[in-house]
Structures are given as structure tokens and as C-alpha cells.
Amino acid sequence: MFKQRFWLVIFFIFQIFSTSLIATGTVNQNWSYLNLLLQLLAILFFDLENALLSVILSIPLYLVLPNSKLDTLSAWRFTFLALFLKYWWSAKKQGLRMEFAPWDKYLAWFALAVLISLFFSNANIVLGLKKLAFALNIYLLYLVVYNFLIKEKEKTLEVIRLTLVSLSTIVVFGFMQLIISSFSNLYYFWQYWATYISKAFYGTSFADSAIYSNSWFSFSVQGQTLRMFSTLPDSHAFAVICVFALTAIVSLLVFEKTNRKRFSKIVLWILMLLSVLGIIFSGTRGVWVGIIAPLVLLGFAYFKHYGRSLLRPIALPILIFFVFLALTPLIQKGLHSFGQRAGESFLQRANSIYDLQESSNAGRLQIWQYTFAKVILPHPLIGVGYGNFSSLLSSDFEKRFNLPKQYISAHSLYLDIFSELGIVGLFALFVFLKSLFTSFYLFFKRHYLFSEDFMVVFAVAVGFNLAWVFTYSLIDGTIMNDRVLMYFFLILGISASIFKQYSQEKE
After folding, report:
1. How far is 400 from 217, CA to CA, in rounded Å?
2. Which residues form the domain of 415?
3. Looking at residue 420, what DSSP letter applies?
4. What is the residue-wise DSSP string for 199-236?
């Protein structure tokens, strides 16, 4: 085990180094095949635990594989499948059956709604099946995490720790991006980042569009301000990644209470502050508004005297968020002294949330109106077909958003689903969410006195933060970003295994 853990560390360091060389254009992108080969060898020769950890650590580092057929073919598609096959073979040899969480059957309903929308409408079936395959490929990671941890309870701590390392890699990359841009000409930084970094992570098509249009900037009368978005395609996905990081941080802080490792506590506190600052520096107002959901739920539970000691560490990042948001004029003044351009302050940006004339808000209202009138109302039952929303957009929207149609969404997870899958798909999604949040609520009610148990804190924190993310999803569909969806299924798999572990103990 020690030798494998040593090689896991070496593997992660090499992946960071090689990914940096490829993404910056220092070496040819064909070297991404070497990264894939090493990942597949790690999955093959590591035991199941370290194979899983190697995949979790690699999530921020997966690059597209250059080829003439599929511009967005990323290495994770092969490694997730390889990891699943390794688990399946191991379980088969031990005579173990694949287990599913209570809400998984509703995901099956959702997949059925997808197939109905594709085969009983005038949809482009290929587009829909590709999008479905994308989601199912990521779902394989969830199945491995869930089934592995319910049989290896003692491994949960290590998986949470390595999940935080993985998430923190994206957060740290975000601050590196902000620092580099602060000392660069914004135009040249933009062009370089799109041409090299974005191309390496998301393919030529996205890079070509990012060269002339992206969501990396905030515009105001004071000028333009670059947001924090790390290696992700937009700042919205980065903000959600920071929310997920806070979930792991608060649980590990509770775990470290019983230890004397002061260094670990300091690192966790630093990561918490960076993650909260990341949410603010992303400039993603939807995530700022979405914080209302966990805040209301925390307030309700607190005044009902449900596990106050358990709720305190979960509420701490939210408190820090509001403190930092209030202090952003001072923070930005400090950034400006280090080279960051003056522009709209974060408080000014927060105040613009309710300004319906603001360009971003006006554009969102326009596309919502179009989605209802031109897409949903003519196809209310089964939608226009999964993955087919953008194909119905008029050329006016390409001009309005200055983007190719394939990158324009309904700017709401629920409207996306309603337009593509109709009432049938939207019902499947709501039933899934009802099952999901009911499970989290029941777990909280049964275990809110376990305030010193880091696994209970993790699962409860996931519940509150998913309420945050799915509230934000009312005005954006960011959860369908590949990295965001990976981490969503990852923390969901860990939470489901914790639910199962505690239910087995009662039995």
C-alpha cells in the first residue's frame, strides 16, 4: 500500500507538470496521449482504492485528445470507463452485485425520458445520444465511488481528502490565472488563454469561439474586469467548484478537531478562505443569489434547535462570504495596487442583480422568453429532443450573444430540460430531486446529534450545498459542465455511501 501511495503522489505531480507543458503550448498536444496512457496503466496496476484516487486527482487535468473526428474527445471518457470495468471485474470475482441508491431509479426514468424525446420527435438523434453518452460516462464514476465505499467504510476519509485536493487544484489554478492576468495586457492574455489553455482543455471549436466571445469579463461604465475562471470554460462553473470544495473543507475541519496536526488545520482554513474568495472573484451573481437557499435552511434548522453544533461549521463559509463581500472595496483596492485593472466593484455587481436593463440580465430574459414561446409551447409534452435546443435557435441569437449556437443554452437547468424533454423529462428531474433531498433531510433528522462525526458533517454539508447549486440552476445550466457534473456525482456517490453505511449499522 505504501509503495502504491508513493507512486500515486509521483503520478499526480507528473500529471500536473505534463498538463502544464501541454496546456501552455510548450510541448505538442499529442503528448496528452501519454497522460492518458499513464492514467490507464495506473488504473490497471494500482489496487482499486488507488486506481479510484488516481482518477479523482486527474479530474482537473484531463485534456482533449487531438484527432480528426471528435474535437471534444477528452481523456476522462476512457479512464472513467476503465475504472468502472476494473471495479466490475473485481466485484464479479468476489460475487458482489452492483448496488444503487434510492434516487438512481429516477435517473433511469430521466434516461427513459431522453430516449422518448429522441425517438418520438423530429430530433437529431445523434446529438441527443452523444449528450446522453456524455452523462452516462460520468455516471460510471459515481457507481464506482458508491459501491466501493459502502464495502470499504474506512476508506471514506481518504476519498474525501483526495476529492478536496482535486477541487483545490482548480481553485489554486484560478488564483494563478488571476495573478497572471493582473500583470498582463488583458487582450493578449485573453487571446493566449483561448488559443492554448482553452484549446487544450476543451478543444479547437471552443477555443475559436473564446477568441472573440466568452464570459470571462464583467463590463461596466468603469471599464472591464476579468473574472476568475481557472482552467474552466467560464466563471460560473468555477464558482460551483468552489462551493463543492467548501463541502469537503468543513467536514475535514471537524475531523481535524481531534488531531494535533496544526499544519493540516492551517491548510484547511487557507483553502476555505480561497474558495470563498473564488466565489466572489468569479463574479457569478447567480451563485451569490443561490446562497439564500442554504441560508434559509440553516436558519430554519437552527431556530428549530436541530443540531446547532453540527450546523455551525457548515454555516461558517456562508458567514465568511458575506464578510468578504462587504469588504470587497478594500480587497479590490489591494488588487489594484498589485496591477489588477479598475472596474466594477463586486458590490456594484451584486446591486446589478435586480437591474433588468443590465446587458446580461436583459439577454437572459430574452432567451427565456424565446424558450417559452418558440420551443416549449410548441413541444410541451416530450420536448424538441435531448441535446437539440441550440439547433432551433435563430441566427439572431448568434448575433445577440456573439457565439455559435451550440454554446447557447436556455440559461436555466429547468428550462433546458423542459425545452428538450418536455413535461415528461421535467417531471423525471423533479422526482429525482425530491428523492435526493428527502434522503438528505431524513439523514440529517436522524443524525444531527453526531456533530463530531466528519462523515455526518460531510453528508449534511452536501445537502445544504446542493440546495445552493440547484437554486442557482434556476438561472443557469452550469451543472451540465463536464467538471461540475463529475464533482456533483463524486460527492453524491460519497454521500450515498455514507447513508448506506449508517443504515447498515442500524440493521
Report:
1. 17
2. 98-506
3. H
4. HHHH-HHHHHHHTT--S-EEEETTEEEEPP-TTSSSHH
Q: Examine the domain organization and report whether 248 and 294 are in the same domain.
A: yes
Q: Does residue 88 sit in the same domain as residue 173? A: no
pLDDT digits (tens, 9 = 90+) for 134-152: 999 999 999 999 999 998 8
Q: How far apart are CA 74 and CA 62, in angstroms?
A: 7
pLDDT at 246 over 80: yes
Core vs surface per residue 253-281: b (16+ CB within 10 A) or e = bbbbeeeeeeeeeebbeebbebbbbbbbb
Task: Characterise 307 by phi-psi region: left (phi > 0), alpha (psi -120 to 50), beta (else).
Answer: left
Cell numbers found for residue 161: 481528502
- What is the pTM for the complete model shown? 0.93
Question: Look-up: residue for cell 449528450?
Answer: 131
Same domain for 90 and 103?
Answer: no
Query: What angle, rounded to 10 degrees, do the helices at 32-45 and 48-58 form?
Result: 160
pLDDT above 90 (res 405) = no
- Grid cell for residue 99: 448496488
Give Cβ neighbours of residue 278 (< 8 Å, ≥ 6 apart).
171, 174, 175, 228, 238, 239, 241, 242
Give CA–CA dist 127/388, Å, rounded.
7
| Axis-axis angle for helices 292-303, 308-326 (nearest 10) | 140
Q: pLDDT of 344-366, one tens digit each? A: 555 555 555 555 555 566 667 88
